[in-house]
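Entry type: protein chain
Record version: 2
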Amino acid sequence: MDLLGLHHVAIICGDYARSRAFYTETLGLPVIAETYRASRDSWKLDLGLPDGARLELFSFPGAPHRPSRPEAQGLRHLAFAVADVEAASAALLAKGVAVEPIRTDSLTDRRFTFFADPDGLPLELYEADQPAG
C-alpha cells in the first residue's frame, strides 16, 4: 500500500452555523461544497486547504460531546502549517479568538501555539519550513 497523503479530516460540529462561520470567516477556508442531507437532518461542508487536503464539517442532531482534556484517547489536535506563527496568532487574536502563548518545540525547534474551535477542538498553528526561494 502506498499512501499518497492526507485527503480530509472530518469534524462533527455542535452548532453548524457557528462552526461554519469560524472555519470560513475566522480561518478563511474556502467552501468547496455544501450539502444538506434531509434523510439525516445533517449538513456536510467541504472546505479546502492550500495543500489540496480538505476539512469536512458535519452536523448531526444530538451528537454527544467528546472528551478532550486531559489527554483523552482519539484525535489529540489538528495542526495547521503557517509561515509565521506570530502573525497568524495575531490575526486570530484580532478576530477575538483566544490563543495560547507561543512556544518552541524542543524536538524540532519550531514555534507553535494552540487555540480552539467553537466546540473546544484543540487546533494548532505550527510554523513550517519555508520553501527555498
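Comment: The longest strand covers residues 31-37.
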